[in-house]
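Q: Hi! First time doing this. I have a protein sequence and I read that you can turn it into a structure. Is that right? Here it is:
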Amino acid sequence: MDPKSETITTPLDANAERLLDLDEVARLLGGISTRSVRRLIARGDLPPPVKVLSAPRLYTSDVRTYLDGLKEKRTALVRRRERRET
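A: Yes, that's right. Below is the predicted 3D structure, encoded as C-alpha cells:
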C-alpha cells in the first residue's frame, strides 16, 4: 500500500463519523456528567444510543446536531430580545 494514499483521521476531524461512549459525549458537552447525558437521551434531546457489545454509543454527528440546535435556539432568543428592544 502506498503510504501517500493512506488517510488518517483524528477525533477533531469534522468529517469523521465516530462512535462515542457516554464519557466522551459528556466531555464534548462541556464536562457534564454521564447521568446528564442519559437524561438528555431519555428526554429525547439526544437520540437513542446504538449498542456496541451492550455499551451505549452515540455518533459524533448526533452530538454535533444537538449542539447546533442549541446554537439555533440561542440565536433565535437573541433576535427576539433585539426586536423587543427596538
